[in-house]
Amino acid sequence: MKTIRVPIFLQQRVMQTLRAKIALAEQKLEQKFPEPIVNYKQRGTTAGSAYLKEWEIRINPILLIENPDNFIDEVVPHELAHLLVYRVYGRKGILPHGNEWKWMMQSVLEVSPSRTHNFSVSTVKSKTFTYHCACPSNHELTIRRHNKVVRGENQYLCKKCGEILRRKNEVAAEN
């Protein structure tokens, strides 16, 4: 996989926002927080991820480069909020985007809480494979899931009808 280099000025903006939000959290929560590790290795359509125990934020470099302002304003605080909730409340009984996270986003970090981003993902979307069931709609499986089906390691069911998803050529062979 090719490594995407994030321009230094964007890395600096990410860190500037991260540090400002940590300072805000320290002021409002009256406790100190370490600066998390930030790397630019997030892949796929996910904008960012928080690794709680590692105290790390992973950022999708392509989505950052394509959407710098919104990404830095939304995704950086979103992932930081996950780390802060973990540090303040622990993990037991806490939902990833539950009340504690929403409170952390709104009241502490002063950012509107949103579970998902709305960036275009056309440049990062991986190839999908079409599968069918008894329902009229198609199901798109990622290459990872498709390969598990091909290797016989897994089967996937339609959430609506409960039928095993099959490739079109498999459906035709059975009829």
Task: Report what the structure shows.
By secondary structure, the protein is of the alpha+beta class. The chain has two domains: about 100 residues, Zincin-like; about 45 residues, no CATH class. Helix content is about 45%, strand content about 15%. The protein has six helices and six strands. A three-stranded mixed beta sheet has the order 1-3-2. Strands 5-4-6 form a three-stranded antiparallel beta sheet. Helix 1 runs parallel beside helix 3 and helix 3 packs across helix 4. The radius of gyration is 20 Å and the shape is globular. The C terminus is likely disordered.
Task: Give short descriptive properties of this protein.
single chain; 175 residues; alpha+beta; Zincin-like; 2 domains; three-stranded mixed beta sheet; three-stranded antiparallel beta sheet; 6 helices; 43% helix; globular
Task: Provide a count of the helices.
Answer: 6
- Element-level helix/strand string: HEEEHHHEEHEH
- Amount of helix: 40-55%
Which structural category fits the helices and strands? alpha+beta
Strand order of the largest sheet: 1-3-2
CATH class of the largest domain: Alpha Beta
Task: Tell me briefly what this model is.
By secondary structure, the chain is an alpha+beta fold.
Topology:
Layout: H1 8-29, E1 37-39, E2 48-51, E3 56-59, H2 61-66, H3 68-89, H4 99-108, E4 128-132, E5 139-142, H5 143-150, E6 166-167, H6 168-174
Parallel strand pairs: 1-3
Antiparallel strand pairs: 2-3, 4-5, 4-6
Helix pairs in contact: 1-3, 3-4
